[in-house]
Fold Sulfide/dihydroorotate dehydrogenase-like FAD/NAD-binding protein.
Amino acid sequence: MPCKILEKERLIPGQTSKLVIDAPHIAKKAQPGNFVILRVCEKGERIPLTIADADPERGTITIVYLVMGKSTALLETLDAGDSILDLCGPLGKPTHIEKAGTVICVGGGTGIAAMHHIAKGHHKAGNHVVAVIGARSKDLLLFYDELSSFCPEVLVSTDDGSFGHKGLVTDLLRQRLETDKTVSEVVAVGPVPMMAAVAKTTEPFGVKTTVSLNSIMVDGIGMCGACRVSVGGETRFACVDGPEFDGHKVDFNELRQRLAAFKPQEKASYDHHCKCTCAGEK
Ligand SMILES: Cc1cc2nc3c(=O)[nH]c(=O)nc-3n(C[C@H](O)[C@H](O)[C@H](O)COP(=O)(O)OP(=O)(O)OC[C@H]3O[C@@H](n4cnc5c(N)ncnc54)[C@H](O)[C@@H]3O)c2cc1C
Ligand code: FES
């Protein structure tokens, strides 16, 4: 069913945008951790994007995406008032949230937006949420104000030191775990190397660690097998068994290899798209 884009904000021009979409059927069921699969046009591929926020009263969901290749570049051509051809969701298992005390939510890059919905859920459950967010520089940092509006603590790291701690989110995480023994869970959403590093950092402290896996997905309903990941030596389907898993059990090397499996095809598809759009086609 086509869904209208009500608002578009270019968070990092040409790289990352936020869309607020009219999707009452999804908004009323969406929970933290859920994602949607969308198609921009008739011949377009199906791409998964996390629900970064949902407003059941207004009937809207928010998505935030990084322009990576052909499909996200096509999505970036749409503006407020345009429609997304079809939007399927909410998909995936929602985040397991219970009253647990202090929860550290770690986000990197576009993953900060996805982590925001999970952090909000933990806050609503009465947990003390510490947000730890990182980007290459201050200009690329997303959702700082949104997280600050409900998280009692927002710790920031930037690679170049332009804001907050100069270094990585894992430096801040390690410092916190060394001094705070009340942390009951760490949740990480972001690039695969960041999630792997978070899991490695928390392991010696024995703190439960949940990661949200962005494996390649096609149908999103457990039929095609494209999203398979190895967790604790078992094959799991990220779309129906996840996307969240125990970070200490995920085979991150295999995930990295599977994500890179179609690089030449993705590049060819993007180059073709660029030529077509430059020549006036879509
Ligand atoms: C559950 C889940 C939630 C996600 N949430 C977000 C989000 O909130 N914001 C965001 O920017 N990105 C998110 N992603 C990643 C997003 O789906 C990919 O960036 C997008 O599909 C890239 O498509 P493309 O055609 O623009 O790029 P391509 O050039 O086709 O691919 C670029 C890279 O994106 C990944 N990718 C490609 N196709 C898929 C696919 N069908 N499924 C998953 N990954 C793919 C691969 O790593 C690939 O190397 C999520 C992925 C998953 C699985
Ligand atoms: S995307 Fe097809 S089984 Fe998960």
Notes: Confidence is low (pLDDT under 50) at residues 278-282. DSSP finds nine helices and 17 strands in the chain. Residues 217-220, 222-227, 237, 239 surround FE2/S2 (inorganic) cluster (ligand 2) (CB under 6 Å).
